[in-house]
Amino acid sequence: MTNRVAQVPPSFLARTLYPRVTVAEYHQMIADGVFEDGEPIELIEGYLVLKMSHNSPHANAVAKLTKRLVRLAPVGWEVRSQLPITLADSEPEPDAVLARGDETTYADHHPAPAEIGLVVEVADSSRYADRTEKLRMYARAGVVVYWIVNVSDKQVEVYTAPDSAAEPPTYRARTDYKPGDSVPVVLDGTAVAHLSVSELVS
Question: Are residues 88 and 167 in the same domain?
């Protein structure tokens, strides 16, 4: 598939494979074996996008984040790492998700927005995309809490109050947490745990 990468200036959506497709068409392509197992592709706003490679700081932050979320997640919430979620026009694979249910809940589907309490992207070289295209995508879908674990700037950015009607869709509130701070893990409007910023971005 990589021979069809668009030859356009570098940006998040420039790393796309054309043509634009629906979620249903994307699922059919997977079922038909169009992509090899494990091929680094996700559907973003109708585009087949090549996922960025992970450098060591990014990979390490994902591992630390996942370990802590698994330890702190309350009963009734499932931690998923780098696995698909299904939105109206997208099927991204966030670095972490807290979704309602348990390990059996998603045997026949990926989490949808109504089932998702938290989506997290770890950002190093992907900061621009995570703050623009992915933020817009999650806000449009009504994902209630979106974190960017910003390894480069050593902070965790917490976005809340999605406004899907805005143009472009966005979050009305952003709070940045620095080393020394603890980030509240908020599910259904209640803080169920706290995570140390220093542990996530150091």
Answer: yes
